[in-house]
Specification:
It is a single chain. The chain is an alpha/beta fold. α22 crosses α23 and α25 (about 730-770) packs across α29. The longest helix is centred in the last third of the chain and has 39 residues, at about 730-770. Pfam families: GalKase_gal_bdg, GHMP_kinases_N, Glyco_trans_1_3. This is L-arabinokinase isoform X1. It comes from Nicotiana tabacum.
């Protein structure tokens, strides 16, 4: 920094509490500041040695204070989103006032000239309150990271995002590092090169010190500051390789070809001396891999939202190979290592970001202004919360997308998915189209199906040498590489469902009324002999020497919007053990061990269920592309749509003729036993057997279709998304289900006791008085016999429940007490936690009354059209909604939407008449009933506006309907250029 004014300055450098990567890059900036004679106070939660190893100077002062927590990791590869928010609240939100007071006083006490933050939000506000300028130096900001977590936790946490963004807005500017995420809260940006720690020793010196021969290949196993702790085996490495292990515990044993590095070994030197690095993506790992030109074999981290942007950078410079977690844990490392060592990393940018950033910081502290102030902090602040919701949007559906996000999306293609099916230009796409000849089936003119076929054609076209689109997603690349485009492909389609009435009463045997949504999932599948299958490189490397075997390859479009793995593959032999299909329990564990690819259980699980239940044997390789327009986590059965579409496609490709009802029941087994979600069967039945603009009426005992109910032309149903994520795998849904089954068991037991007592009294009376048992109350006896063997709660009428059992059920009961008295609750898909207290009365009452409400609703639909009809239907929906809440399955968002519908209903000219939460509850979508007219749509738009004003979230609206999978059938297609005509 020669030429700068020589004046000793005081810097306060705040370092986030997330991992060591921030601390190590801060070291490099601090080192340059100290070289210029400045004093630096580092506020950090990282160990002292991280700084003292590199900087030995009296001008660095370490203050051990943790002011934010970053992201909490469940393990080395998984971020716990809810725990992250909770810890942040405890660390930075609740004590905020005292933190600000302490930091303002401290900053004044050290007479700081400049506050630097990487990237602690409250530091920026403390600087402003102390009258000191502040600058951030980072590649991401916590408002961006936490915005996605808020989607999981519910919009009521949105104030966290607003506060973080408001804190950042007090910055002068952000020194932005390569591999950056969108950072809307900052007023201005200055880009710098990579910040990389300098090397202390040469490659030759390090190898000599560790006793590694020049001829030996070296892998460095580096999972950052968190020891991975996985068992390592000799056979994991290719022949002749040595692995250097970072962060190993003292008692961890390693094979002879693995070397534990000492805790204080300087990691950058070890990386530069290696041929390949294996680890997780973080800024430090990525920057050092690029700077030292060491290829990185990386394993995806779940819900680590910084990762896609860093991954794009490392792959752009041909320095990265992604390894699936399953292969990491099972030791299938060799194909990835051999592929990585053949790469030629091409990064040619600077690596002196530490020096450049230090110069900028020094200049700013001396009073110079590098920021242009050309951007409005208030506008950027308004964008901050929007970003999190846009990450989860369905492209083409939401409005008001900030310009900065559109730019980021163009730059970073990993965040894009297939164009929305309804905004694709489908003009000219018919059965006689330029893309595919349809050999079987009919696309029925459905816009999303036409769009899907066009997307398939675009994927195929991308294989052409003259096709050049540098923004191809890895999903497109993977799909293009797995299909033999000259062969036939089968396409299936399955919609989501709008739960009009019935909901969680399905597992208690209720009548339900379900409407298929317009949004649907498409699956394209191709079956090939293993010798003809196009395999991804790592799948090919796994093939046995004696000859090719069947492989399942799956691509999920849109997966990266949820930051999960876009591809999955497995050897079909993994589903077989000793000549028989593996158990469902083993399959559940197989998929559950890698959260980034657990989604594949919904698709691959259909194959195991067909093997287990129908005895089908799959020897050919299978390639599957899944593209779903059914939004996840909104209570409209996105999972059932994927399951039904997948099983329909697999059946079609293998010539299996499965009855629609049977197929739905098979799909339920996928969800219950392989995915591990305790849902009823109505979702799969509606997706399979439903028809457009009709309600599927079904009695869930277990799945008896009564028929299709016409929706009167005067009535219409809509769905409005609350923005609160929903999952039937969540603990609330499970506990309510358990409570209902506990209630059923108590009712059965009570009826059995009364029946025995009744029979005993009859016998005694006969003996004493010559009583004739034929004169006994046979009706009462029959009722008790029926109730003592009650299969489904919904077979108990409301009046019998109130007369005989309501007061005998406890409000709640501990699992321990129940098991001690009743042994088991007789539900095969849930287990009782003895330590938990379960609500009983409300979960038991709900399905009994819901079954009655649904029967009344179905009968009212055929009544003469009138306001009274609509009012009665709406009242039944309101009753259902409040019964959900009594069970503990309500949410602030869905309650707000129902209240808004009620306001509209009672306003002048109101044409909406009722609303209810749907599906598994605890968020998700609200179903609304109203008159089929333009006025209803206007009122729904007003509800959207009011909800957004109150919550910051613009609700997605479900409108319209479409055919179920059975009605659609399947398409058998072939590229027109290769079809036989």
């Amino acid at each position: 920094m020669a030429g700068s004014e020589k004046k000793s300055l005081v810097f306060a450098y705040y370092v986030t509490g997330h991992g060591f990567g921030h601390a190590t890059r801060v070291v490099e900036v601090v080192r340059h500041l100290i070289q210029e004679g400045h004093e630096v106070h580092v506020v950090t939660g990282a160990p002292d040695y991280v700084y003292n190893t590199e900087i030995q100077s009296p001008r660095i002062f370490i203050r051990k204070v943790l002011l934010d927590c970053g992201a909490v990791q469940a393990d080395a590869l998984t971020v716990d989103r809810l725990a992250s928010l909770e810890k942040y609240i405890q660390t930075a939100v609740l004590p905020r006032d005292s933190i600000l007071a302490t930091e303002v006083e401290w900053l004044k006490s050290i007479k700081a000239d400049l506050v630097i933050s990487d990237v602690v939000p409250v530091a920026c506000r403390a600087a402003a309150d102390a009258g000191i300028r502040a600058v951030c130096c980072t590649n991401f900001s916590w408002d961006f990271i936490y915005a996605d977590y808020v989607m999981a936790a519910g919009y009521h946490n949105r104030s966290i995002i607003w506060q973080i963004a408001e804190d950042y807005s007090h910055c002068e500017f952000v020194i932005r590092l390569p591999g950056y995420c969108p950072m809307p809260a900052f007023r201005d940006v200055i880009d710098v090169p990579l910040v990389v720690r300098r090397l202390h020793k040469t490659r030759e010196q390090v190898r000599k010190e560790l006793g590694i021969l020049d001829s030996q290949k070296v892998l460095i196993y580096n999972f950052g500051g968190q020891p991975a702790g996985w068992k390592l085996k000799k056979e994991y490495l290719p022949e002749g390789w040595i692995c250097l292990v970072c962060g190993a515990s003292e008692d961890q044993e390693v094979p002879s070809n693995f070397v534990k590095l000492p805790k204080d070994f300087y990691t950058p030197d070890a990386i530069a001396a290696s041929d390949v690095m294996l680890g997780k993506i973080g800024y430090g790992t990525t920057s050092e891999a690029l700077a030292y030109k060491v290829p990185l074999v990386f394993v995806r981290r779940d819900y680590f939202n910084e990762e896609p942007f860093l991954r794009n950078m490392i792959e752009h410079y041909q320095a990265g190979v992604e390894m699936i977690r399953r292969d990491l844990l099972t030791g299938r490392w060799a194909p990835y290592i051999q592929r990585a060592v053949a790469l030629k990393p091409s990064y040619d940018g600077g690596a002196n970001g530490g020096e450049v950033a230090a110069r900028l910081l020094q200049d700013t502290a001396l009073g110079q202004y590098h920021a242009s102030h050309g951007l409005s902090g208030a506008r950027r602040l308004g964008d901050a919360i929007v970003l999190g919701y846009q990450l989860q949007r369905i492209i083409g559906k939401d409005i008001a997308i900030p310009a900065w996000y559109s730019l980021a999306q163009n730059e970073l293609s990993s965040r894009t998915q297939l164009p929305n099916k309804e905004v694709v230009d489908n003009s000219g796409l018919t059965k006689e189209n330029d893309y595919f000849a349809i050999l079987h089936g009919d696309h029925q003119g459905l816009p999303d199906t036409l769009g899907f076929l066009k997307s398939l054609a675009e994927i195929q076209s991308s294989c052409s040498p003259q096709y050049n689109n540098k923004f191809q997603t890895r999903e497109h690349l993977a799909a293009a590489a797995m299909f033999n485009w000259e062969e036939e492909i089968f396409v299936s389609r399955a919609p989501g469902r709008l739960d009009v009435m019935g909901g969680i009463a399905d597992y208690s045997g209720s009548l339900v009324l379900q409407m298929p949504t317009r949004e649907a999932c498409h699956v394209a599948i191709q079956r090939n002999h293993p010798s003809k299958q196009k395999l991804w490189k790592h799948a090919k490397a796994r093939q046995p020497e004696e000859g090719p075997t069947g492989v399942l390859q799956i691509v999920s479009f849109g997966s990266e919007l949820g930051n999960r793995g876009p591809t999955f593959d497995m050897d079909l032999s993994d589903f077989v053990e000793d000549g028989q299909p593996i158990t469902y329990e083993k399959a559940y564990n197989y998929f559950a061990r890698d959260p980034a690819q657990k989604w594949a259980a919904y698709v691959a699980g259909t194959i195991l269920v067909l093997m287990t239940e129908l005895g089908i044997r799959f020897e050919d390789s299978i390639s599957i592309l899944v593209s779903s327009g059914v939004p996840e986590g909104k209570g409209v059965s996105s999972s059932a749509a994927v399951e039904v579409a997948s099983m329909t496609a697999v059946a079609a490709a293998h010539g299996l003729n499965i009855d629609p009802r049977h197929l739905a029941l098979l799909c339920q087994k996928v969800e219950n036993h392989i995915v591990g979600a305790p849902c009823g069967v109505m979702d799969q039945m509606a997706s399979t057997c439903g028809e457009a603009d009709k309600l599927l009426a079904m009695v869930c005992q277990p799945a008896e279709v009564l028929g299709l109910v016409d929706i009167p032309p005067t009535i219409r149903f809509w769905g409005i998304d609350s923005g609160i994520r929903h999952s039937v795998g969540g603990s609330d849904y499970k506990s309510v289900r358990v409570g209902a089954f506990i209630g059923r068991k108590i009712i059965k037991s009570t009826a059995s006791v009364e029946l025995r007592s009744s029979l005993s009294n009859i016998s005694s009376a006969q003996q004493i008085n010559g009583f004739n048992p034929d004169e006994a109350d046979e009706n009462s006896k029959d009722l008790l016999e029926t109730e003592a063997s009650l299969d489904y709660l919904c077979n108990l009428s409301p009046h019998r429940y109130e007369a005989s059992y309501a007061t005998r059920l406890p409000e709640s009961l501990s699992g321990q007490e129940f098991v001690e008295k009743y042994l088991d609750h007789d539900d095969s898909v849930t287990t009782i936690d003895k330590e938990r207290n379960y609500a009983v009365r409300a979960p038991t009452r709900h399905p009994i009354y819901e079954n009655f409400r649904v029967k009344a609703f179905k009968a009212l639909l055929s009544a003469a059209p009138s306001n009274d009809q609509l009012s009665a239907l709406g009242e039944l929906m309101y009753q259902c909604h409040f019964s959900y809440s009594a069970c503990g399955l309500g949410s602030n968002g869905t309650d707000r939407l129902v209240s808004l519908v009620q306001e509209m209903q009672h306003s002048e000219g109101g044409t909406l008449f009722g609303a209810k939460i749907t599906g598994g509850g605890s968020g998700g979508t609200v179903c609304v009933i109203g008159r089929n007219c333009l006025r209803s749509n206007e009122q729904l738009i007003e509800i959207q506006r009011r909800y957004k004003a109150a919550t910051g979230f613009l609700p997605y609206m479900f409108e319209g309907s479409s055919p179920g999978a059975a009605k659609f059938g399947h398409l058998q297609i072939r590229l027109r250029s290769s079809s036989k005509e």
